Amino acid sequence: MEPTPIPPIEAVPHDFSFIGLFLQADPIVKGVMIVLIIASIACWTVVFEKIVRLARARSQARSFNTLVKTGGAIDGNADGISGHVVQAGLEAWRDHDQTESRAERRERIERAMRAALSLDVKRLQSGLPLLATSGSTAPFIGLFGTVWGIMNSFSSIAKSQDTSLAVVAPGIAEALFATAIGLVVAIPAVMAYNKLSGDVSRIQSSFVSGIGVLGNRLARERGASRAAAAE
């Protein structure tokens, strides 16, 4: 009686879905993917936080410029950037020197307001270096995962003595997936950094133009109050 032939064992198909590529990746490649995913989450957190803060700052800049150009009442108790700038201007206005000229007084008031503005601008810029760093380094981190995955593919070829696509495809797919994640992190980070940096600069310029008008107004009012006191 002839023995029953044993059917060949079918190779288990490799899962080429995103989750499958991640779960079946080499530990080093998987670590690269995790780092890039964490960086992506951090970048998007910064982006959404900046969108909210810059929208509020943009509204405050419009209100500040409307106030100083229409000659409205100056309130040093306002919140936000405009409140800090006005408060600094009023403090410099009260702390006057009887011997200084109007131009010197105006320069001192404007300098105090610009210093207060610089502190708030630095707060608005917090988090932007993360976007710049992620945008510049994420492609290279992904490239490291790519190189490592291709090295694994070559190692598989050497061990199996088989150059078929079934041997090298999994490692190459994992490698290219790491590159794709790096690009997915870098491209939005660079675009967001350029956009948000431009928004911060425009908001700062808007406040600076209003500071010039308000500084002139406060210097003029201080001069008028000194003249009235002298009479």
TrEMBL record:
Q: Where is the MotA/TolQ/ExbB proton channel domain?
A: 79-206
Q: Does the keyword Phosphoprotein apply?
A: no
Task: Kindly indicate where the leader peptide sits in this chain.
Answer: none
Q: What are the alphabetically sorted keywords of the record? A: Cell membrane, Membrane, Protein transport, Transmembrane, Transmembrane helix, Transport
Cellular localization per UniProt: Cell membrane; Membrane
Q: Which PANTHER family match?
A: PROTEIN TOLQ (PTHR30625), TOL-PAL SYSTEM PROTEIN TOLQ (PTHR30625:SF3)
- UniProt family annotation: Belongs to the exbB/tolQ family.
**Protein name per its UniProtKB record:** MotA/TolQ/ExbB proton channel domain-containing protein
Q: Which organism does this record belong to?
A: Methylobacterium haplocladii
Q: What is the lineage of its organism?
A: Bacteria, Pseudomonadati, Pseudomonadota, Alphaproteobacteria, Hyphomicrobiales
